[in-house]
Amino acid sequence: MTRVAIIGAGPCGLAQLHAFASDKAADGAEMPELVCYEKQSDWGGLWNYTWRTGLDEHGEPCHGSMYRYLWSNGPKECLEFADYTFEEHFGRPIGSFPPREVLYDYIVGRATRSGIRQYIRFNHAVRNVSRSPETGRFVLSAHNHESDTTSTEEFDCVVVASGHFSTPNMPQYPGYETFGGTLMHAHDFRDAVQFADQNVMIIGSSYSAEDIASQCWKYGARSVVCSSRSGPMGFDWPDGITEKPILSHVDGRTVYFVDGTSAEIDAIVSCTGYLHHFPYMADDLRLVTTNRLASSMLYRGVVFQPDNGVMYLGMQDQWYTFNMFDVQAWYARDVILGRIELPSAEEQARSIAEEQAIEDLIEDDYGLIDYQGAYTQDLLEQSDYPDFNTPLVSAMFKDWKGHKKKSIIGYRDNGHTSPMTGIVAPAHHTDWVDAMDDSLESFLATDS
Length: 448
Description:
Structural class: alpha/beta
CATH topology of the largest domain: FAD/NAD(P)-binding domain
Number of strands: 18
Largest sheet: 5 strands, parallel
Distance between the termini: 55 Å
CATH class of the largest domain: Alpha Beta
Number of domains: 2
Order of helices and strands: EHEHHEEEEEEEHEEEEEEEEEHHHHH
CATH superfamily of the largest domain: FAD/NAD(P)-binding domain
Strand content: 15-25%
Radius of gyration: 22 Å
């Protein structure tokens, strides 16, 4: 029997398990033996909230970057599972921008229904994956934190589904060693209330930067200064949030910017992205890529080009998320089962280079949305995953960008259309700026 190791039980790992459990083409054929390794005590990956930062209770680097009061920063309709709608899960339409606890409930709802928890070994941290020169199979070692023992097993294929939003990219600026306030990466940000009545600086210009800046403002920061190498985010910020060019250096609690201005700051939160980091993979099996749509070393964004026995899921910079992970998982499943014939190594390498050249010519975010939408649709058509109308999803992403430009604080108050049911999401009972409670119970309440 074919044995498949899946590393991680977050959205990507659960998608891979679900792909095998949902295999309509098997027609009675024996499913491969699946073993999913998850170093946390429960499933959900990044969507698990923990108060811990740095190291977890076992001394492992904390996987999660989730913080209290996080609400989806993109329409839920753009990530909806094609085979499990939000309406099916919650029994009625809900707003387009649910908080973390609601999305977590949705993710694990499908996983529970498909019966895949039985394949997951929780509290198992993978230590090493390599090819055995004797058997040619993959040798995987993992430490079981419950028994405090390490075991080694062999597999025919390995799916790396541990994500790439856990190892912080933390730049250093002159004078950091003198800073007397709080200095952290977004990975360790847990609660905006911590910064009430403080002057906060956010470094970065992507999703984390815009959301943590908004969160700190919402929960009472005295002021928020956003600083970025790539220039201003350009939103119509409310009073209390300003933008500056990148900082030049720090002296005590005074932060100096390259335009010669300065500000007194109590906390610096670095929203500067993450590193693709897979220390458990042998050098010849380890993905090395930057955060881009056309990942290096991955044929069709999934198959590890130097060794086709390894698949990586969700390694792209992302507009599309859960539904793209699904189509990647379906594609990986069919490669593993021999239904998809891969071209030669040379053709794979040429395809990767061609896709990266195409991406490099794209001039704006709208083009990048179309690129990833086309990629997702193309991959979808290689398997039997249900079609979910990627043109509509891409159009919603573009509408969402327009809403953010109009109001970075109010864009979550808009409703979008489910590509599966055609239902337009109702307005949430409370505007986001006034919704201080992010619990599932509060969000699903029928009135405020």
